[in-house]
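Q: Could you fold this chain for me?
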Amino acid sequence: MSTPTAPPTISAPPPQVIPADTVYAALGDPTRRRLLQILADGQGRTATVLAGNVGKRLDATLKHLVALRGAGLVVTAENPQDGRRLLYHLAPAIPATKTERGWEMDFGYCLVRG
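A: Sure. Below is the predicted structure, expressed as structure tokens.
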């Protein structure tokens, strides 16, 4: 009589690791850090809303969002309420945790608190 064998385990692919230099370059700007902190709650926001949140003009905010997107820290999705505008989200590869003092984002080699 044979012993039943356990089904093979399928491991999940490793999380995407964003190169340290890319993260440090993006985090070197206080406006970009603030944008990431705002997006850490998982809620998508338009560039217009984010511009108001950080107190910058829309064109300046878009410049920062383009840099964050290029670094792989931010992703976009179509806005279901207004197809002409994009919603910006923190990239799924970045785990964000709510703490008593705010949000923490763990990049594996760098922990950002805000």
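A (continued): The CA atoms of residues 51 and 108 lie 29 Å apart.
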